[in-house]
Amino acid sequence: MIQKANGDAIEVILEGPISEKTEIFDIKIQNFKDIKLNMAKVTFINSIGVKNWISWTTRMATGAKLTLEECPYVIVNQVNIVHGFVPKNSVITSFFAPFLCDACSHEQVLKLENGVHYKYAQNQLPHEVNLPEVICAKCGAVMEPDFMVDKTFGFLKEKT
Ligand SMILES: [Zn+2]
């Protein structure tokens, strides 16, 4: 784990599994207003990791913002399935989504970005999803998302 604090902002690059031992939970999250986590190298999260994560993020200061960058698909899944996994004031700026080629079964992972491939619901406007056309690197066919689009983008809906 690499961390860089600057006043009330902190940037952390996470690596490996999120479990009971993850060092990130030692960070005093309540001391920061702007918390940016790069998740690209996170491998998985177990149930204790989920529990620790939620009790850690609930200690965030009022009005503080949590930004998650380059989330693996498993983390986006948690955000959608586990109520309260991310606080209200949070944003996933990008995540990795799996695509599958029907023609040759080749799999590719693509980074989807906020403001390009999706937009959060806000000011009564619904969320938006604009999946790119993904071309199979092996056979040139158009690939299909290997995930349930509706469910995966559930995190974009306005939190009530
Ligand atoms: Zn193919």
Structure description:
- By secondary structure, this protein is of the alpha/beta class.
- The chain has two domains: 1-92, STAS domain (Transcription Regulator spoIIAA, 2-Layer Sandwich), CATH 3.30.750.24; 98-160, no CATH class.
- It is 15% helix and 34% strand.
- The chain has helices at residues 47-57, 73-81, 149-152; strands at residues 2-6, 9-18, 34-45, 65-69, 90-92, 94-100, 107-113, 118-119, 128-129, 144-145.
- A five-stranded mixed beta sheet has the order 1-2-3-4-5, covered by helices on one side. Strands 7-6-10 form a three-stranded antiparallel beta sheet, with no helix packed on it.
- Helix 2 links the parallel strand 4 and strand 5 (90-92).
- The longest helix is centred in the N-terminal third of the chain and has 11 residues, at 47-57.
- The radius of gyration is 17 Å and the shape is globular.
- 18% of the residues are buried.
- The mean pLDDT is 95.
- Zinc ion binds at residues 101, 103-104, 106, 136, 138-139, 141.
Notable features of this structure?
alpha/beta, binds zinc ion, globular, single chain, five-stranded mixed β-sheet, 3 helices
Short description, anyone?
The protein is of the alpha/beta class. Helices cover 15% and strands 34% of the residues. It has helices at 47-57, 73-81, 149-152; strands at 2-6, 9-18, 34-45, 65-69, 90-92, 94-100, 107-113, 118-119, 128-129, 144-145.
Distance between the termini: 33 Å
Total number of strands: 10
Which class of secondary structure composition applies to the elements?
A: alpha/beta
Low-confidence stretches: none
Sheet with the most strands: spatial strand order = 1-2-3-4-5
CATH architecture term of the largest domain: 2-Layer Sandwich
Order of SSEs:
EEEHEHEEEEEEH
- Residues in helix, %: 10-25%
- CATH domain class name of the largest domain: Alpha Beta
